[in-house]
Amino acid sequence: MSDFPKFVEFHEEGPREGFQIECQTYPVAQRARLIEALADAGLKTIQVGSFVSPKAVPTMADTAEVFEVLKKRPGVRYTALWLNEMGFEKARSVREVDLDPKIMFYTTDPFSLRNNNCTAGEMRDKQLRWIDTYRNAGLDVDGAYVMTAFGCNLQGDVPLSAVTDIVKWVRDVCRERNIKLKQFYLADTVGWANPEEIKRRVGAVRDLLPDIRIGLHLHDTRGLGAANVYAALQMGVDLFDSSVAGLGGCPFAGHGDVKGAGNICTEDMVFMCHEMGIETGIDLDALIEAARLAETIIGRPLAGRIMHAGSLRQYRNKARVAA
Predict the structure, then answer these.
(1) Phi/psi zone of residue 277: left (φ > 0), alpha (ψ -120 to 50 degrees), beta?
(2) Integer Rg of the chain from CA
(3) Is 118 a catalytic residue?
(4) 247: which of 3, 127, 243, 289 fits an S-S bond (Cβ 3.0–4.6 Å)?
(5) With the CA atoms of 86, 87, 88 and 93 taken in that order, what torsion angle do they form, in degrees rounded to the nearest 10?
């Protein structure tokens, strides 16, 4: 019997993961307007942008400017991504950033080398220094991410043991350093997950970290995004990263004919939850309008379904009026 959560939390990543993969840079004012619309819809954590190399990701070079013009809504966290010490210092220098200290891991060397210019083992060892860096800055590590936790376009299948080995390492380090980790994310960075693997890997992580909240960062590259979310809901997972209108993807995830992997669509997943009686704290109609705004800004049709079809509530209300 499925044990669905009563409330699901979505962390919005469209403003960062969505716009970073585009071939052009969009105006700061437009991106700020979208972020404000997402906050107005009820999203409580929004990733605004990233502090990374402007040569590698030129579309994020003006992230500080977006933070500076943004009209922040009380009770909403406006976060950013960084991959090295320089990026972290840039994020710290922008007072509007809500710092989100997490440690990050990879299951495969090829993807780690492409994304961070180091092997997966080297990246793991760097996290010890990151823990010290965060503590010296007065921050407590509150979460961990495992990238390519289900498969890798550059290497292929990722065995479950590659994930559980990282989980055990994180568990032991946290015990040694008295770190109370709150969240542990499995990231399907390039869209290899399927519903059964979602259940298998979430179950394995939960066995090792029974007291830590599990989150998922899923991509819809091969059309299984919604099915994977449903499988996760069956496992009681109540925390997901997502992107408005299905924006997004890692600019370093492509291989051959496979391009960057689009994220699961926030409004579509919120719709699914609401139809199942699961609360999200999000105004779906307002979120649909934010998705349409994203599509207008990007200037082409985007992957979101509900924004093109309309929610069932809209049709139910029309039917009641007609009756």
Answers:
(1) left
(2) 19
(3) no
(4) 243
(5) 90
Beta bridge partner(s), residue 11? 45, 241
Length of the chain: 323
Tokens of 131: 């823990």
What helix, strand, coil percent values describe the chain, rounded to 5? 45, 15, 40
Q: Which two tokens stand for residue 172?
A: 């032991």
In the set 152, 174, 250, 273, the catalytic residue is 250
Over residues 54-110, the pLDDT tens digits come to 998 999 999 999 999 999 999 999 999 998 999 999 999 999 999 999 999 999 999
The side-by-side arrangement of strands in the sheet containing 9-12 is 77-82, 45-51, 9-12, 239-242, 213-217, 183-187, 143-147, 102-106
Q: Is the pTM of this model over 0.70?
A: yes
Convert 199-232 to b/e letters by CB count within 10 Å (16 or more is b). bbbbebbbeebeebbbbbbbbbbeebbbebbbbb
